[in-house]
């Protein structure tokens, strides 16, 4: 047995053991790592505002606390307004439940030809009530588990707030501690990456918040003029959900006002739907490119794919962090990936068909003609006379001499620019004629 073989076995076993231990430790610390990742990106989001306040004399801890208060007030107002809407709608549903039952029974009798009545339906309610009571009892028996889950969520929320506060308030000290472990060249790279992450994350949050304000104000004005119930609540719902839930948030946000307006009047619902569609076009083509041009330059399909991937990897937190992480990675890679000029081709033309159709066709024809010329053999002309554009170039005569920039003829005539004739002679001063190519005096 070779002397190195036992050492190789030991090294292989130790490597496998360390790998398994690392996976076990990663699984155990998964919640802590997610908490730290969430806190880091929340610190990135509020750090531009904290830096702006710190540059004007504020202490970083006080500036971070102020941002927490502002975010808490906004979140409390949003969920409070939504809670009031949900409570009022639930109360209305309960009070109008008998009328809704009568309407449903009348619709079923008229559609399917049945003979249901409220008394027949109410006789079956005890069975349904017993089932509901059973589920409620099971839920009440699991109250300890529900309480433990709620306590865990509260603890994690407080942990996120604590880590976010320290990462933002003591951001410079934390970065100095990290950079002290790296050589100068690596320090510059880490600080550059850190700056990009702050710029992209903070810019994304602030631009989305600004778009949400514009959307909420516009929708509130229209819903109030159309006399739609709960106009302020619905406007806040549309503004926040449409901006902070990528792609599908637009449809989720617009469906609720349309449904509530439909309960009042179909015409009102139609007007609300038309305004939502018109505002989305205005936002997508005019407002959003101006606001998010420097914050998140990402295709909507790529953004939607990032959200789905983030949700599949780390759950709902991944859906929130997918776009800032994607924007930061896009900025990192753009500094190292080299891009080239794209060749003109009909398949790469991105011009609008209606306005630039002639340009597109001309490009296609030029590409087609150039392909034909490449396939055809290049043969010299039969005679030296050429009145086309190539006659202005220097041509070689039959005996090997090179003429000027004009046209040579077979009878010896020459132009004023000094072209060679078929026998190699030519004039250089003016038009000359002569027999057998002799220039005139």
UniProtKB/TrEMBL annotation:
<comment type="similarity">
    <text>Belongs to the autoinducer-2 exporter (AI-2E) (TC 2.A.86) family.</text>
</comment>
<feature type="transmembrane region" description="Helical">
    <location>
        <begin position="232"/>
        <end position="252"/>
    </location>
</feature>
<feature type="compositionally biased region" description="Basic and acidic residues">
    <location>
        <begin position="389"/>
        <end position="401"/>
    </location>
</feature>
<feature type="transmembrane region" description="Helical">
    <location>
        <begin position="66"/>
        <end position="87"/>
    </location>
</feature>
<feature type="transmembrane region" description="Helical">
    <location>
        <begin position="143"/>
        <end position="167"/>
    </location>
</feature>
<keyword id="KW-0813">Transport</keyword>
<keyword id="KW-0812">Transmembrane</keyword>
<feature type="compositionally biased region" description="Gly residues">
    <location>
        <begin position="425"/>
        <end position="435"/>
    </location>
</feature>
<keyword id="KW-0472">Membrane</keyword>
<feature type="transmembrane region" description="Helical">
    <location>
        <begin position="32"/>
        <end position="54"/>
    </location>
</feature>
<keyword id="KW-1003">Cell membrane</keyword>
<keyword id="KW-1133">Transmembrane helix</keyword>
<feature type="compositionally biased region" description="Low complexity">
    <location>
        <begin position="412"/>
        <end position="424"/>
    </location>
</feature>
<protein>
    <submittedName>
        <fullName>AI-2E family transporter</fullName>
    </submittedName>
</protein>
<dbReference type="Pfam" id="PF01594">
    <property type="entry name" value="AI-2E_transport"/>
</dbReference>
<feature type="compositionally biased region" description="Gly residues">
    <location>
        <begin position="402"/>
        <end position="411"/>
    </location>
</feature>
<feature type="compositionally biased region" description="Basic residues">
    <location>
        <begin position="353"/>
        <end position="369"/>
    </location>
</feature>
<feature type="region of interest" description="Disordered">
    <location>
        <begin position="351"/>
        <end position="441"/>
    </location>
</feature>
<dbReference type="InterPro" id="IPR002549">
    <property type="entry name" value="AI-2E-like"/>
</dbReference>
<feature type="transmembrane region" description="Helical">
    <location>
        <begin position="7"/>
        <end position="26"/>
    </location>
</feature>
<feature type="transmembrane region" description="Helical">
    <location>
        <begin position="209"/>
        <end position="226"/>
    </location>
</feature>
<feature type="transmembrane region" description="Helical">
    <location>
        <begin position="259"/>
        <end position="282"/>
    </location>
</feature>
<feature type="transmembrane region" description="Helical">
    <location>
        <begin position="302"/>
        <end position="329"/>
    </location>
</feature>
């Amino acid at each position: 047995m070779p002397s190195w073989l036992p050492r190789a076995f030991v090294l292989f076993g130790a490597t496998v053991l360390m790998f398994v231990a690392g996976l076990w430790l990663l699984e155990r610390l998964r919640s802590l790592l997610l908490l730290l990742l969430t806190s880091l990106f929340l610190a990135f989001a509020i750090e531009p505002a904290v830096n702006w306040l710190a540059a004007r004399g504020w202490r970083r801890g006080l500036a971070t606390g102020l941002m927490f208060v502002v975010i808490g007030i906004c979140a409390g107002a949003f969920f409070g307004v939504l809670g009031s809407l949900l409570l009022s709608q639930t109360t209305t549903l309960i009070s109008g439940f008998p009328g809704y039952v009568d309407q449903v029974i009348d619709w079923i009798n008229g559609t399917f030809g049945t003979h249901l009545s409220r008394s027949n339906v109410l006789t079956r309610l005890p069975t349904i009530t017993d089932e509901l009571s059973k589920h409620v009892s099971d839920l009440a028996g699991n109250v300890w588990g529900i309480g433990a889950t709620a306590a865990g969520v509260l603890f994690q929320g407080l942990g996120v707030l604590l880590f976010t506060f320290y990462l933002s308030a003591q951001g410079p000290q934390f970065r100095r501690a990290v950079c002290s472990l790296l050589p100068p060249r690596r320090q510059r790279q880490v600080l550059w990456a850190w700056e990009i992450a702050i710029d992209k994350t903070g810019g994304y949050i602030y631009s989305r918040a600004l778009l949400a304000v514009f959307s909420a104000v516009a929708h509130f004005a229209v819903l109030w003029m159309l006399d739609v119930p709960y106009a302020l609540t619905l406007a806040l719902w549309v503004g926040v959900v449409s901006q902070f839930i990528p792609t599908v948030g637009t449809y989720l946000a617009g469906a609720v006002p349309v449904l509530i307006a439909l309960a009042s009047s179909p015409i009102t619902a139609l007007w609300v739907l038309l305004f939502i569609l018109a505002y989305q076009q205005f936002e997508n083509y005019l407002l959003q490119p101006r606001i998010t041009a420097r914050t998140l330059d990402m295709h909507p399909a790529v953004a939607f794919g990032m959200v789905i991937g983030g949700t599949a990897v780390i759950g709902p937190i991944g859906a929130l962090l997918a776009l800032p992480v994607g924007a930061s990675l896009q900025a990192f890679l753009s500094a190292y990936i080299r891009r080239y000029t794209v060749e003109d081709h009909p398949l790469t033309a991105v011009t609008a068909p209606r306005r630039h159709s002639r340009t597109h066709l001309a490009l296609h024809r030029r590409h087609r003609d150039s392909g034909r010329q490449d396939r055809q053999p290049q043969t010299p002309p039969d005679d030296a006379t050429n009145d086309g554009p190539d006659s202005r170039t220097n041509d070689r005569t039959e005996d090997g001499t090179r003429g000027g920039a004009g046209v040579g003829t077979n009878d010896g005539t020459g132009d004023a620019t000094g072209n060679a004739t078929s026998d190699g002679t030519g004039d250089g001063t003016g038009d000359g004629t002569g027999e057998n190519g002799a220039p005139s005096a």
